[in-house]
Amino acid sequence: MGDYVERVVDLEVTQEEAAEAAARVIDWLVAEGVVIRETDATGVYGLHADEGHLPGPQWTRAVVHDGWGPGRLAVVTGRHHHVGGQGEDDAEYAVCPHCATRTTFIDHPASFEPDEAVWAPFRAAVEAWEATGGGEATRATCAACGVATPVTDWQWPDEYALGALSFDFWGFPPLADAFVAGLTRRLGHRTARHLGKF
């Protein structure tokens, strides 16, 4: 079963800045009537959050159409890797920020499992970033150019993102592009957008 979620991940905010950035966006969403400040645990399915904001009287401002009623908005702070859903937890590839070489972890359609020899150093860097936020262990080395770069600087596919703040819209109809652009402007950072089912 499960439920659908559309997620906007801040790719640049630090863990220390995340709570203030989240509060700023919630203030805007409440002022717009998209959500209210009240939260509960109904309709939030445990991906790094135990509760979500209830929809507001003007929640339709956020979506393309109002074909069904919304669920909850979970605000997730803390360093996490975010995935698109359906049980996936590994990235398919990453692109080196120095030489633009793509490192492929999962070679679809030939394979649906990651090449562990290639993925393991990246997974270790992601886990170190989640635990510490920085340091040598959070770097991944490009096999093509040999440069070790913070794993957060690599370019990831659309269904995989590293960030310390996300807005998870559970059960909402598809979000409008203009709404997501407005949310991104208020964050002042690059964002990633996921649509998935959990």
Ordered list of secondary-structure elements with their pairings:
Layout: E1 4-10, H1 15-32, E2 35-40, E3 52-55, E4 73-83, E5 93-95, E6 102-104, H2 116-132, E7 139-141, E8 148-150, E9 160-170, H3 177-187, E10 191-197
Antiparallel strand pairs: 1-9, 1-10, 2-3, 4-9, 5-6, 7-8
Organism: Streptomyces roseicoloratus
Protein name: Acetone carboxylase subunit gamma
User: What gap, in angstroms, lies between the N and C termini?
Assistant: 8 Å
Nearest-angstrom radius of gyration?
17 Å
Low-confidence segments, given as residue ranges, are: none
CATH topology of the largest domain: TATA-Binding Protein
- How do the SSEs run, as a string of H and E? EHEEEEEHEEEHE
Mean pLDDT, to the nearest integer, reads 91
SS summary, helix count: 3
- The coarse overall form would be elongated
Structural class: alpha+beta
What's the architecture of the largest domain, going by CATH?
2-Layer Sandwich
Number of strands: 10
Describe the protein's architecture and organization.
This protein is of the alpha+beta class. The protein folds into two domains: 4-84 and 161-197, TATA-Binding Protein, CATH 3.30.310; 93-153, no CATH class. Helices cover 23% and strands 29% of the residues. The strands form four sheets. It has a four-stranded antiparallel β-sheet with strand order 4-9-1-10. A hairpin with a 6-residue loop joins strand 7 and strand 8. The N and C termini lie close together (8 Å). The model has no long low-confidence stretch (mean pLDDT 91).
